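Running this now, will post back.
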Amino acid sequence: MTRPRVGIVGAGQLGRMLALAGYPLGIDCTLLDTSADAPGAQVAASVLGSLDDPRALAKLADVVDVVTLEIENVAVAALESLDGHIDVFPPPAAVAAAQDRLAEKRLFRSLGIPTAEFVTIDSEADAASAEALGWPAILKTRRMGYDGRGQRVVDSAAALAAAWRELGGVPSIAEAFVEFDRELSLIAVQGARDERVFYPLAENVHRNGILASTIAPYEDAELQRKAEAWLAAIMSTLQYRGVLTVELFHTKSGLVANEMAPRVHNSGHWTIEGAVTSQFENHLRAVLGWPLGDARARGHAAMLNLIGRLPPRDTVLGIPGAHLHDYGKSPRPQRKVGHCTLVDEDRARLLERLTTLRAVVSRSNQ
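Update: finished.
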């Protein structure tokens, strides 16, 4: 029997975890990246080249059966160059919508999905139009913004104009500040025959624009139903295939969509140990046209990102229910070098152990 071959554009930690999820299923993954020492390239075959280079993508396509991606900041034209040669999932149109905050907001609103109020900022003169949003507001570059990059909180039109210059004077949007009770995310998967599975809502905490921790499931049947309907509409519109994640604000008036990611997502790392089928396995199943796996949670789970450096392994593994994931990266401030997952049938006990784990991680970064 021929082993299925999946090409992954990008070889960061998400590519690494996709490749690792493929091994038990007999899937051979080949990853494209600029470094032979990238996290994914440490565990699977790789092709060296720029993610935006059609020639490098063609080289990847020549050795696999289907192409997917672990990062959305890839030139859409390069992905489209593979059309007629090999299938690419998620489709380039979905990647294009997620790359541009303005296109993303317009997609959400066209489907009746509420977002923060916003205005486009293409020049310093446009700063005055943000007055209608109220202060503070958030200036965001339309492209290349993740983990807090390309964003500034501003409190006046003058500050917005200065921040726009500081961010390179590139096309941007200004968003009204959203007062929210918590941040949530929903991860969904759509397969080859438009079948779908949804993971439970997860509650996220960010620090300095970077995801710090996730606890799942966040149990609210009405919010789950609404969020599932929104993601179903997005996936149907985009003729989607694979994992799709939408980050949400839970406000006093309900859910507000923040942004989407056309890929496996940091807030879904808990699914490796905490769900019947991980987001990584389900993404591979979807792009290969296989039946999707059960997305139910196994009790309760918490994920803690490891930023800067890894804590002592033996100390982490001494905490009941703890699982450590090392991304094979060298230590560096503000760099995601790994994550820990805790799983427990009892939520209260899980939260107690999460407090212990946070203390261990905090001490390692002092």
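DSSP finds eleven helices and 17 strands in the chain. More later if anyone needs it.
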